[in-house]
Amino acid sequence: MKQLKTLLLATALCLVTINVTQAQSKVAHINTQELIAAMPEAKAAQTEIETLGKTYQTDIQASITEYQNTVKQYEAEAATKTDEENQKRGLELQEKQQRIQQFRADAQQDIAKKEAELFKPIQEKAMKAINEVAKEKGYQYVLDRATLIVADGTDILADVKAKLGI
Description:
The chain has a single domain (2-164), classed as 2-Layer Sandwich (Protein Binding, DinI Protein, Chain A), CATH 3.30.910.20. The radius of gyration is 32 Å and the shape is rod-shaped. The longest helix is centred in the middle third of the chain and has 55 residues, at 83-137. A three-stranded parallel β-sheet has the order 2-1-3, covered by helices on one side. It is mostly helical. 9% of the residues are buried. It has helices at 2-23, 32-38, 40-77, 83-137, 157-164, and strands at residues 27-30, 141-144, 154-155. The model is unreliable at 12-23 (pLDDT under 50). The protein starts with a helix and ends with a helix. It has five helices and three strands.
């Protein structure tokens, strides 16, 4: 009888251990930044943003050069102008400088807006692929590698890249 109780207790412990093991969540990790950087769409978007940035930089530099030329001209002519004309020119230079600063700020906002616009569908595509691979492989949680301190689990980056064909 005592052996039967011991056998039943051992069987129950085995069943509990199996259930606990099966109940644990499957967790994987992925470096989403690396994934997005590897996507051809991201490379094209980055090139477009860089081109836009260079265009703005050229325009800003042209405005700065024009401003500097105007400053040199006004400084050279200052001795031949009245105080009233020099004050008026000083205000004109301040306005030009403010317009350049405003243009620079607007350009940065426009670049940020364009970047968000271009990368949103790329991020959505990456997330969709991550979700599909997670479901296919039976993972309940997928963590971003950038926020992990220890990543001993399964890295699904290669699987997601294969899913995206990259």
